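subagent[fold] <- orchestrator: predict structure for attached chain, return tokens only, no commentary.
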Amino acid sequence: MSDNILQVKNLSVEFKTFTGTVKAVRDVSFDLARGETLAIVGESGSGKSVTSKAIMGILQQNATISQGQISYSDMDLTKIKQKQFSEIRGSRMAMVFQDPLSALNPVMKIGKQITESLVLSGKISRKDAPAKAMELMKAVAIPEPEKRYNQYPFQFSGGMRQRIVIACALAGDPELLICDEPTTALDVSVQSQILELIRDLQKERNLSVIFITHDMGVVAGIANRMAVMYAGKIVEIGNVDEVFYNPQHPYTWNLLAAMPDMETEQDEKLLSIPGTPPNMLHPPVGDAFAARNKFALNIDNRVEPPMFKISDTHYAATWLLHPDAPKVEMPDVLKKRLERQKAKGAYGNGK
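subagent[fold] -> orchestrator:
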């Protein structure tokens, strides 16, 4: 990896609602190197999708970036106007959304939609756009592109529709691609195909990718690094192997222990996380995960933990890493599973 293409620093996003201000993203910081894939993982409502929308400049009207910087190619995206955003959105950065049916116009032919994306990028003429659109359809493995160019979204399967959405995102030849849970609505076999497609395209085009998901199992095969989010904050970040094989935050322990694998025995219990995420209208004082964490210390209810350094690339925000904290080990079920996976080499960054 060379220089960073993106740097998010102390980002906070709030939503004004009738019931109060929702603090959706709180003091989030991370960077993304050129050609790197960063996975952002967490439960629904953890702030991962809001973070991506802030980067793309597509937050809802009631949202405000209350603090922080989003530096992209020497531009602070929190300070530019929508006209400037329109010039780089699609042509330099693009996004693949979760639901292809919502992303595609149901009454416009597929070829026309890709062609419009090409023309709007400003990198190709309307005359040359149809031929380029069919090239993109081939690139995302749409069979018989000449025939399917004139078909409508309802004539495609869910997996094929998602391939079309990816083709539209690639139309402007972006250098940054954000994938917001692109496989959630697909069955397992199709998920695997879409993940392989994104991985291949990333390598071929040297894309920088932010991959958002709630599925820890997806991360291992596609990302170099991963960030775990909870209650609007990053609670652990590191290389994929570090977070999978040496997780340090109790929330990460629970996410991993709740995920079955091919070796899970019939009588082996998966862990579940007790309780519910906090109400972000009134974020809790101290560690937001304390109420659901059986290892919580007294200080967790009073003071928010800083990011403790585990290695040069691995950090976690938990008071359990303080030198004076009692020694606590991850749950036995997770320890056994990680030992199995490590012996098999089942986890890895897929790169």
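orchestrator: received. Logging for downstream: The chain is about 30% helix and 20% strand. The CA atoms of residues 250 and 293 lie 7 Å apart.
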